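Q: How would the C-alpha coordinates look for this protein?
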Amino acid sequence: MTGRTRSPTALGLRPNIAQFTLLVAVNGLVGGMLGQERTVLPLLATDVFGLASYTAALAYILAFGIAKALTNYVAGAWSERYGRKPVLVAGWLIAIPVPLLLIWAPHWWIVVATNVLLGISQGLTWSTTVIMKIDLVGPERRGLALGFNESSGYLAVAGTALLTGYVAANSGLRPEPFLIGLAYAALGLGLSTLAVRETRHHADHEASLLPDERELTPREVFARTSLREPALSSASQAGLVNNLNDGLAWGLFPVLFTAAGLTLTQTGVLVAIYPAVWGIGQLVTGGLSDHWGRKHLITAGMLIQAIALAGIAALDTFGAWAAAAAALGIGTALVYPTLLAVIGDVAHPAWRARAVGVYRLWRDLGFAVGALLTGVLADAWGIRPAIWIVAAITAASGLLVAVRMYETHGPERRTA
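A: Here is the predicted structure in C-alpha coordinate form.
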Protein backbone atom coordinates (compact mmCIF):
# COMPACT_ATOMS: atom_id res chain seq x y z
CA MET A 1 0.00 0.00 0.00
CA THR A 2 1.67 3.19 -1.16
CA GLY A 3 -0.60 5.66 0.58
CA ARG A 4 -4.15 6.93 0.75
CA THR A 5 -5.58 8.90 -2.14
CA ARG A 6 -8.03 11.62 -1.18
CA SER A 7 -11.37 11.26 -2.91
CA PRO A 8 -12.29 14.23 -5.12
CA THR A 9 -15.76 14.03 -3.55
CA ALA A 10 -14.64 13.73 0.08
CA LEU A 11 -17.16 15.31 2.42
CA GLY A 12 -16.15 17.64 5.23
CA LEU A 13 -14.78 21.08 5.90
CA ARG A 14 -11.08 20.18 5.99
CA PRO A 15 -10.78 18.47 2.58
CA ASN A 16 -12.83 21.21 0.93
CA ILE A 17 -11.48 24.24 2.79
CA ALA A 18 -10.25 26.11 -0.30
CA GLN A 19 -13.54 25.99 -2.15
CA PHE A 20 -15.47 26.58 1.06
CA THR A 21 -13.46 29.73 1.82
CA LEU A 22 -13.92 30.98 -1.73
CA LEU A 23 -17.69 30.49 -1.48
CA VAL A 24 -17.73 32.38 1.83
CA ALA A 25 -16.04 35.30 0.06
CA VAL A 26 -18.44 35.10 -2.89
CA ASN A 27 -21.42 35.18 -0.55
CA GLY A 28 -19.97 38.25 1.12
CA LEU A 29 -20.16 39.97 -2.25
CA VAL A 30 -23.75 38.75 -2.64
CA GLY A 31 -24.60 40.35 0.69
CA GLY A 32 -22.85 43.54 -0.30
CA MET A 33 -25.17 43.89 -3.30
CA LEU A 34 -28.08 43.95 -0.85
CA GLY A 35 -26.28 46.22 1.60
CA GLN A 36 -25.83 49.01 -0.97
CA GLU A 37 -29.57 49.71 -0.61
CA ARG A 38 -30.14 49.41 3.13
CA THR A 39 -29.36 52.97 4.18
CA VAL A 40 -29.74 54.88 0.92
CA LEU A 41 -32.89 53.60 -0.80
CA PRO A 42 -35.45 54.41 1.93
CA LEU A 43 -34.09 57.96 1.95
CA LEU A 44 -34.16 58.19 -1.85
CA ALA A 45 -37.86 57.33 -1.67
CA THR A 46 -38.67 60.22 0.66
CA ASP A 47 -36.00 62.83 -0.12
CA VAL A 48 -35.51 62.45 -3.89
CA PHE A 49 -38.77 60.97 -5.17
CA GLY A 50 -40.97 62.65 -2.55
CA LEU A 51 -43.05 59.60 -1.61
CA ALA A 52 -45.30 60.28 1.38
CA SER A 53 -47.05 56.89 1.55
CA TYR A 54 -45.15 54.19 3.41
CA THR A 55 -46.86 51.52 1.31
CA ALA A 56 -45.67 53.13 -1.92
CA ALA A 57 -42.18 53.73 -0.55
CA LEU A 58 -41.84 50.08 0.45
CA ALA A 59 -42.91 48.82 -2.98
CA TYR A 60 -39.27 48.11 -3.88
CA ILE A 61 -38.98 45.67 -0.95
CA LEU A 62 -42.24 44.01 -2.01
CA ALA A 63 -40.89 43.59 -5.55
CA PHE A 64 -37.55 42.34 -4.27
CA GLY A 65 -39.13 39.83 -1.89
CA ILE A 66 -41.50 38.29 -4.44
CA ALA A 67 -38.78 38.05 -7.11
CA LYS A 68 -36.22 36.55 -4.71
CA ALA A 69 -38.70 34.09 -3.21
CA LEU A 70 -39.80 32.72 -6.57
CA THR A 71 -36.23 32.59 -7.84
CA ASN A 72 -35.11 30.66 -4.76
CA TYR A 73 -37.52 27.89 -5.72
CA VAL A 74 -36.29 27.87 -9.31
CA ALA A 75 -32.64 27.96 -8.18
CA GLY A 76 -33.06 24.79 -6.14
CA ALA A 77 -34.61 22.92 -9.07
CA TRP A 78 -32.13 24.27 -11.62
CA SER A 79 -29.12 23.46 -9.44
CA GLU A 80 -30.21 19.81 -9.42
CA ARG A 81 -30.86 19.76 -13.16
CA TYR A 82 -27.99 21.87 -14.54
CA GLY A 83 -25.48 22.01 -11.69
CA ARG A 84 -24.71 24.64 -9.08
CA LYS A 85 -22.06 26.73 -10.85
CA PRO A 86 -24.10 27.73 -13.95
CA VAL A 87 -26.89 29.00 -11.69
CA LEU A 88 -24.39 31.01 -9.62
CA VAL A 89 -22.83 32.62 -12.70
CA ALA A 90 -26.25 33.46 -14.15
CA GLY A 91 -27.13 35.25 -10.90
CA TRP A 92 -24.07 37.46 -11.14
CA LEU A 93 -24.76 38.33 -14.78
CA ILE A 94 -28.20 39.58 -13.75
CA ALA A 95 -26.63 41.63 -10.91
CA ILE A 96 -24.42 43.76 -13.17
CA PRO A 97 -27.12 46.27 -14.30
CA VAL A 98 -28.59 46.78 -10.81
CA PRO A 99 -26.30 49.56 -9.49
CA LEU A 100 -26.28 51.27 -12.88
CA LEU A 101 -30.08 51.43 -12.94
CA LEU A 102 -30.20 52.73 -9.35
CA ILE A 103 -27.80 55.51 -10.32
CA TRP A 104 -29.77 56.47 -13.43
CA ALA A 105 -33.42 55.89 -12.41
CA PRO A 106 -35.46 59.09 -13.04
CA HIS A 107 -38.69 57.57 -11.73
CA TRP A 108 -39.52 55.47 -8.65
CA TRP A 109 -41.09 52.69 -10.74
CA ILE A 110 -37.66 52.08 -12.29
CA VAL A 111 -36.19 51.63 -8.80
CA VAL A 112 -38.96 49.12 -8.06
CA ALA A 113 -38.30 47.26 -11.33
CA THR A 114 -34.57 47.24 -10.59
CA ASN A 115 -35.30 45.47 -7.32
CA VAL A 116 -37.00 42.71 -9.28
CA LEU A 117 -33.63 42.17 -10.98
CA LEU A 118 -31.85 42.34 -7.62
CA GLY A 119 -34.27 39.77 -6.18
CA ILE A 120 -33.68 37.38 -9.09
CA SER A 121 -29.93 37.80 -8.76
CA GLN A 122 -29.99 37.26 -4.99
CA GLY A 123 -32.22 34.21 -5.34
CA LEU A 124 -29.82 32.57 -7.78
CA THR A 125 -26.54 33.52 -6.09
CA TRP A 126 -27.36 33.22 -2.38
CA SER A 127 -29.39 30.00 -2.78
CA THR A 128 -26.58 28.41 -4.75
CA THR A 129 -23.84 29.31 -2.27
CA VAL A 130 -25.97 27.76 0.50
CA ILE A 131 -26.53 24.57 -1.48
CA MET A 132 -22.84 24.33 -2.43
CA LYS A 133 -21.66 24.61 1.17
CA ILE A 134 -24.16 21.96 2.29
CA ASP A 135 -22.80 19.76 -0.51
CA LEU A 136 -19.18 20.19 0.58
CA VAL A 137 -19.27 19.78 4.36
CA GLY A 138 -21.58 16.80 4.83
CA PRO A 139 -23.89 16.24 7.82
CA GLU A 140 -21.58 16.70 10.80
CA ARG A 141 -20.58 20.36 10.40
CA ARG A 142 -23.62 21.63 8.57
CA GLY A 143 -24.60 24.24 11.17
CA LEU A 144 -21.05 25.62 11.31
CA ALA A 145 -20.86 25.84 7.53
CA LEU A 146 -24.14 27.66 7.20
CA GLY A 147 -23.19 29.97 10.05
CA PHE A 148 -20.10 31.03 8.10
CA ASN A 149 -22.09 31.39 4.89
CA GLU A 150 -24.80 33.58 6.38
CA SER A 151 -22.29 35.49 8.50
CA SER A 152 -20.26 36.51 5.47
CA GLY A 153 -23.38 37.69 3.67
CA TYR A 154 -24.84 39.73 6.51
CA LEU A 155 -21.54 41.20 7.67
CA ALA A 156 -21.24 42.47 4.12
CA VAL A 157 -24.79 43.83 4.31
CA ALA A 158 -23.86 45.68 7.51
CA GLY A 159 -20.50 46.93 6.30
CA THR A 160 -21.89 48.14 3.01
CA ALA A 161 -24.86 49.81 4.71
CA LEU A 162 -22.44 51.67 6.97
CA LEU A 163 -20.10 52.54 4.10
CA THR A 164 -22.85 53.77 1.78
CA GLY A 165 -24.35 55.82 4.61
CA TYR A 166 -20.98 57.51 5.11
CA VAL A 167 -20.51 58.07 1.37
CA ALA A 168 -24.05 59.45 1.03
CA ALA A 169 -23.52 61.84 3.93
CA ASN A 170 -20.42 63.25 2.25
CA SER A 171 -21.18 62.92 -1.46
CA GLY A 172 -24.95 62.64 -1.83
CA LEU A 173 -27.43 59.82 -2.28
CA ARG A 174 -26.45 59.23 -5.92
CA PRO A 175 -24.33 58.10 -7.73
CA GLU A 176 -21.34 57.41 -5.44
CA PRO A 177 -22.91 54.88 -3.00
CA PHE A 178 -23.96 52.58 -5.84
CA LEU A 179 -20.51 52.49 -7.45
CA ILE A 180 -19.60 50.20 -4.54
CA GLY A 181 -22.27 47.74 -5.69
CA LEU A 182 -20.95 47.85 -9.25
CA ALA A 183 -17.50 46.81 -8.01
CA TYR A 184 -19.03 43.95 -6.00
CA ALA A 185 -20.90 42.64 -9.03
CA ALA A 186 -17.84 42.67 -11.27
CA LEU A 187 -15.70 40.87 -8.67
CA GLY A 188 -18.42 38.32 -7.88
CA LEU A 189 -18.90 37.46 -11.54
CA GLY A 190 -15.17 37.06 -12.07
CA LEU A 191 -14.62 34.77 -9.08
CA SER A 192 -17.68 32.64 -9.81
CA THR A 193 -16.72 32.18 -13.45
CA LEU A 194 -13.01 31.55 -13.04
CA ALA A 195 -12.47 30.03 -9.59
CA VAL A 196 -15.62 28.35 -8.22
CA ARG A 197 -15.95 24.61 -8.97
CA GLU A 198 -19.09 22.48 -9.34
CA THR A 199 -20.22 20.66 -6.15
CA ARG A 200 -23.21 18.58 -7.27
CA HIS A 201 -21.09 15.43 -7.30
CA HIS A 202 -20.57 15.86 -3.54
CA ALA A 203 -24.32 15.62 -3.00
CA ASP A 204 -24.44 12.55 -5.25
CA HIS A 205 -21.66 10.98 -3.18
CA GLU A 206 -23.47 11.68 0.11
CA ALA A 207 -26.67 10.20 -1.30
CA SER A 208 -24.79 7.02 -2.22
CA LEU A 209 -23.84 6.55 1.46
CA LEU A 210 -27.48 6.67 2.61
CA PRO A 211 -30.35 4.21 2.19
CA ASP A 212 -32.14 4.59 -1.12
CA GLU A 213 -35.22 6.77 -1.05
CA ARG A 214 -38.09 6.92 -3.49
CA GLU A 215 -37.75 9.81 -5.92
CA LEU A 216 -40.04 12.63 -4.88
CA THR A 217 -41.95 14.79 -7.33
CA PRO A 218 -41.64 18.58 -7.09
CA ARG A 219 -45.18 18.69 -5.66
CA GLU A 220 -44.25 16.21 -2.91
CA VAL A 221 -41.12 18.17 -1.97
CA PHE A 222 -43.15 21.38 -1.84
CA ALA A 223 -45.87 19.81 0.32
CA ARG A 224 -43.39 18.24 2.76
CA THR A 225 -41.39 21.40 3.21
CA SER A 226 -44.38 23.74 3.40
CA LEU A 227 -47.00 21.85 5.42
CA ARG A 228 -46.72 18.14 6.04
CA GLU A 229 -43.33 17.52 7.65
CA PRO A 230 -43.33 19.10 11.15
CA ALA A 231 -39.70 20.24 11.28
CA LEU A 232 -39.51 21.44 7.68
CA SER A 233 -42.81 23.31 7.79
CA SER A 234 -42.01 24.85 11.21
CA ALA A 235 -38.74 26.10 9.77
CA SER A 236 -40.55 27.54 6.73
CA GLN A 237 -42.99 29.61 8.79
CA ALA A 238 -40.27 30.84 11.15
CA GLY A 239 -38.12 31.83 8.18
CA LEU A 240 -40.99 33.82 6.70
CA VAL A 241 -41.57 35.71 9.95
CA ASN A 242 -37.83 36.31 10.40
CA ASN A 243 -37.59 37.99 7.01
CA LEU A 244 -40.84 39.85 7.64
CA ASN A 245 -38.87 41.46 10.48
CA ASP A 246 -35.97 42.18 8.14
CA GLY A 247 -38.29 43.79 5.59
CA LEU A 248 -39.62 46.00 8.39
CA ALA A 249 -36.10 46.93 9.48
CA TRP A 250 -34.98 47.61 5.91
CA GLY A 251 -37.91 49.81 4.95
CA LEU A 252 -38.99 51.64 8.11
CA PHE A 253 -36.06 51.84 10.52
CA PRO A 254 -34.18 54.55 8.54
CA VAL A 255 -37.38 56.61 8.28
CA LEU A 256 -38.11 56.20 12.01
CA PHE A 257 -34.57 57.17 13.03
CA THR A 258 -34.25 60.22 10.78
CA ALA A 259 -37.76 61.43 11.72
CA ALA A 260 -36.61 61.36 15.35
CA GLY A 261 -33.85 63.85 14.50
CA LEU A 262 -30.86 61.54 14.04
CA THR A 263 -28.27 62.44 11.42
CA LEU A 264 -27.73 60.36 8.29
CA THR A 265 -24.46 59.06 9.76
CA GLN A 266 -26.18 58.03 13.02
CA THR A 267 -28.95 56.36 11.03
CA GLY A 268 -26.35 54.47 9.00
CA VAL A 269 -24.74 53.22 12.21
CA LEU A 270 -28.07 52.01 13.62
CA VAL A 271 -29.03 50.38 10.34
CA ALA A 272 -25.65 48.58 10.31
CA ILE A 273 -25.70 47.37 13.94
CA TYR A 274 -28.50 44.88 13.41
CA PRO A 275 -26.98 42.97 10.45
CA ALA A 276 -23.46 43.32 11.92
CA VAL A 277 -24.41 41.57 15.16
CA TRP A 278 -26.46 39.12 13.12
CA GLY A 279 -23.46 38.39 10.91
CA ILE A 280 -20.88 38.06 13.68
CA GLY A 281 -23.24 36.03 15.85
CA GLN A 282 -23.71 33.40 13.17
CA LEU A 283 -20.02 32.52 13.41
CA VAL A 284 -20.93 31.13 16.85
CA THR A 285 -24.57 30.07 16.59
CA GLY A 286 -24.18 27.84 13.54
CA GLY A 287 -21.56 25.74 15.32
CA LEU A 288 -23.53 25.77 18.57
CA SER A 289 -26.49 24.22 16.80
CA ASP A 290 -24.25 21.29 15.82
CA HIS A 291 -23.56 20.67 19.54
CA TRP A 292 -26.74 21.82 21.30
CA GLY A 293 -29.35 21.02 18.67
CA ARG A 294 -31.52 23.26 16.52
CA LYS A 295 -34.98 23.59 18.09
CA HIS A 296 -34.22 25.51 21.28
CA LEU A 297 -31.93 28.00 19.52
CA ILE A 298 -34.69 28.78 17.01
CA THR A 299 -37.34 29.22 19.71
CA ALA A 300 -35.09 31.49 21.77
CA GLY A 301 -34.08 33.50 18.74
CA MET A 302 -37.63 34.26 17.68
CA LEU A 303 -38.61 35.35 21.20
CA ILE A 304 -35.52 37.58 21.51
CA GLN A 305 -36.41 39.21 18.19
CA ALA A 306 -39.92 39.91 19.49
CA ILE A 307 -38.55 41.59 22.62
CA ALA A 308 -36.06 43.64 20.57
CA LEU A 309 -38.77 44.87 18.19
CA ALA A 310 -40.91 45.89 21.15
CA GLY A 311 -37.92 47.86 22.46
CA ILE A 312 -37.46 49.69 19.16
CA ALA A 313 -41.15 50.59 19.16
CA ALA A 314 -41.03 51.86 22.75
CA LEU A 315 -37.68 53.71 22.82
CA ASP A 316 -36.52 56.95 21.21
CA THR A 317 -32.80 57.61 21.80
CA PHE A 318 -29.71 56.61 19.82
CA GLY A 319 -28.22 54.53 22.66
CA ALA A 320 -31.45 52.68 23.43
CA TRP A 321 -32.09 51.97 19.76
CA ALA A 322 -28.51 50.72 19.37
CA ALA A 323 -29.03 48.22 22.21
CA ALA A 324 -32.36 47.06 20.76
CA ALA A 325 -30.84 46.71 17.27
CA ALA A 326 -28.04 44.58 18.74
CA ALA A 327 -30.61 42.38 20.50
CA LEU A 328 -32.49 42.00 17.22
CA GLY A 329 -29.23 40.90 15.60
CA ILE A 330 -28.60 38.33 18.37
CA GLY A 331 -32.07 36.85 17.97
CA THR A 332 -31.70 36.65 14.21
CA ALA A 333 -28.25 35.05 14.50
CA LEU A 334 -29.71 32.28 16.66
CA VAL A 335 -32.34 31.55 14.03
CA TYR A 336 -30.91 32.15 10.57
CA PRO A 337 -28.27 29.44 9.98
CA THR A 338 -30.10 27.04 12.29
CA LEU A 339 -33.26 27.03 10.17
CA LEU A 340 -31.21 26.18 7.08
CA ALA A 341 -29.45 23.43 9.03
CA VAL A 342 -32.85 21.92 9.89
CA ILE A 343 -33.62 21.67 6.16
CA GLY A 344 -30.25 20.01 5.56
CA ASP A 345 -30.81 17.59 8.46
CA VAL A 346 -34.23 16.37 7.35
CA ALA A 347 -34.15 16.51 3.54
CA HIS A 348 -32.50 13.59 1.71
CA PRO A 349 -29.56 14.65 -0.52
CA ALA A 350 -31.56 13.48 -3.55
CA TRP A 351 -34.15 16.24 -3.01
CA ARG A 352 -32.34 18.55 -0.60
CA ALA A 353 -31.60 21.32 -3.10
CA ARG A 354 -35.29 21.50 -3.97
CA ALA A 355 -36.22 21.55 -0.27
CA VAL A 356 -33.76 24.43 0.28
CA GLY A 357 -35.43 26.22 -2.62
CA VAL A 358 -38.92 25.73 -1.14
CA TYR A 359 -37.77 26.86 2.33
CA ARG A 360 -36.11 29.94 0.87
CA LEU A 361 -39.25 30.63 -1.18
CA TRP A 362 -41.27 30.92 2.04
CA ARG A 363 -38.52 32.67 3.96
CA ASP A 364 -37.97 35.40 1.41
CA LEU A 365 -41.67 35.90 0.83
CA GLY A 366 -41.29 37.41 4.29
CA PHE A 367 -39.71 40.47 2.64
CA ALA A 368 -42.84 40.95 0.54
CA VAL A 369 -45.23 40.24 3.42
CA GLY A 370 -43.23 42.58 5.66
CA ALA A 371 -43.20 45.40 3.13
CA LEU A 372 -46.92 45.14 2.42
CA LEU A 373 -48.07 44.53 6.00
CA THR A 374 -45.89 47.12 7.68
CA GLY A 375 -46.56 49.69 4.95
CA VAL A 376 -50.32 49.35 5.36
CA LEU A 377 -50.06 49.37 9.17
CA ALA A 378 -47.73 52.37 9.20
CA ASP A 379 -50.01 54.33 6.86
CA ALA A 380 -53.01 53.50 9.05
CA TRP A 381 -51.58 53.92 12.55
CA GLY A 382 -47.92 55.00 12.31
CA ILE A 383 -44.54 53.28 12.34
CA ARG A 384 -44.41 52.42 16.05
CA PRO A 385 -47.78 50.58 16.17
CA ALA A 386 -46.71 48.65 13.07
CA ILE A 387 -43.56 47.50 14.88
CA TRP A 388 -45.59 46.45 17.95
CA ILE A 389 -47.84 44.25 15.80
CA VAL A 390 -44.86 42.61 14.09
CA ALA A 391 -43.31 41.93 17.52
CA ALA A 392 -46.46 40.03 18.52
CA ILE A 393 -46.40 37.99 15.29
CA THR A 394 -42.75 37.10 15.93
CA ALA A 395 -43.47 35.89 19.46
CA ALA A 396 -46.30 33.70 18.13
CA SER A 397 -43.95 32.19 15.54
CA GLY A 398 -41.43 31.25 18.22
CA LEU A 399 -44.10 29.56 20.31
CA LEU A 400 -45.25 27.57 17.26
CA VAL A 401 -41.70 26.26 16.79
CA ALA A 402 -41.59 25.26 20.47
CA VAL A 403 -44.81 23.28 20.11
CA ARG A 404 -44.48 21.70 16.64
CA MET A 405 -40.81 21.26 15.71
CA TYR A 406 -38.86 18.21 16.88
CA GLU A 407 -35.08 18.18 17.36
CA THR A 408 -33.35 17.33 14.06
CA HIS A 409 -29.73 17.07 15.19
CA GLY A 410 -27.93 15.58 18.15
CA PRO A 411 -29.01 13.09 20.81
CA GLU A 412 -32.67 14.16 20.73
CA ARG A 413 -32.99 13.68 16.99
CA ARG A 414 -35.73 11.39 15.72
CA THR A 415 -36.49 10.14 12.24
CA ALA A 416 -38.83 12.35 10.20
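Residues 65 and 367 are 5 Å apart (CA to CA).

The chain has 17 helices and no strands.

Upvote if useful.
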